[in-house]
Design brief:
Number of strands: 4
Radius of gyration: 31 Å
Structural class: alpha+beta
Strand order of the largest sheet: 2-3-1-4
Number of helices: 10
Strand content: 5-15%
């Protein structure tokens, strides 16, 4: 039973870690709209206003030509050849751009199509002021990570169900042995007129106590386990610390683990009582 509850808790930690990693990737995903160098700022800001009116859009950041040039210089500060070539041009070759962040990653494709269909034309002519739309490059990584999360959750659910069935079977046999050991006591209780509930109650309570003790044991084991695993998750996933997650969500974990243990113990002992204690 302790093993079953430990696996259940581990699945919760794994799911939280993978979801946090996915959120980190999602936070870095956006759609970049690059404009031609001759685009007027008023036209760009007009498109920005129209984008902000779309319900799926969470944030739109405007980057001017000068700001884009400064960011380019900062990214290539160690590449003297590129900076020298930039100086030889004499003029700023970069256009302004908009960084668009959606509320959900699934909405980026719709935003990109909106921009492709949008008549983003200058006020002085029929030429589009949009140079290119960079549909987010992390799409494949997000889809793969989402697939990994779904697969891990399915695998964890299967393992939990198998172990839960094994736990019920073991507790079932334990209660059966307890009934067999107390058969003479049960006979005496019947003779003196004990009710069915009175006779069955202690065996069901015994199963519940198995689950409760297993839950407490699991929670105690998770403390050194998550403490040991914390540096690994933090180094691999960034800001994710599984030990901090355990501490901050201890109340929730307590009710999940203890509740699952009590339910497993109660079900298995009740089945054993119904099967082997004919009253």
């Amino acid at each position: 039973m302790t093993l079953t509850l430990f696996v259940l808790g581990s699945i919760i930690f794994i799911g939280a870690t993978l979801n946090a990693a996915l959120e980190q990737i999602r936070s870095k995903v956006d759609v970049n709209v690059y404009f031609v160098t001759t685009a007027r700022e008023d036209d760009i800001l007009s498109i920005k206003t129209r984008l902000e009116e779309i319900p799926e859009v969470a944030e739109v950041e405007y980057v001017s030509r000068d700001a884009a040039l400064e960011r380019f210089r900062a990214r290539h500060e160690d590449d003297q050849l590129t900076l020298q070539a930039l100086e030889e041009l004499g003029d700023n070759p970069l256009g302004a751009n908009l960084n668009i962040r959606a509320k959900e990653t699934s909405q980026y494709e719709g935003i990109a199509k909106f921009l492709e269909n949008e008549s983003a034309l200058s006020t002085t002519g029929d030429d589009s002021i949009i140079d290119s739309i960079n549909f987010f490059q992390n799409r494949v990584a997000i889809e793969k990570l989402t697939s990994i999360i779904d697969s891990a959750e399915r695998f964890g659910l299967i393992v939990t169900i198998v172990l839960a069935l094994a736990t019920i079977l073991i507790t079932f046999n334990t209660i059966r042995l307890a009934i067999y050991t107390a058969r003479e006591e049960i006979s005496v209780m019947r003779l003196v007129g004990a009710t069915n509930t009175y006779i069955r109650g202690p065996f069901v309570f015994e199963g519940i106590m198995y689950g409760f003790i297993a839950g407490i044991t699991t929670l105690v084991l998770f403390y050194p386990f998550t403490l040991w695993l914390a540096p690994v998750t933090q180094n691999f996933f960034g800001d994710i610390n599984v030990f901090n997650y355990y501490i901050s969500n201890f109340v929730q974990m307590f009710f999940i683990i203890i509740g699952a243990g009590v339910v497993l113990g109660a079900i298995s002992s009740y089945l054993a009582v119904r099967r082997y204690l004919k009253i």
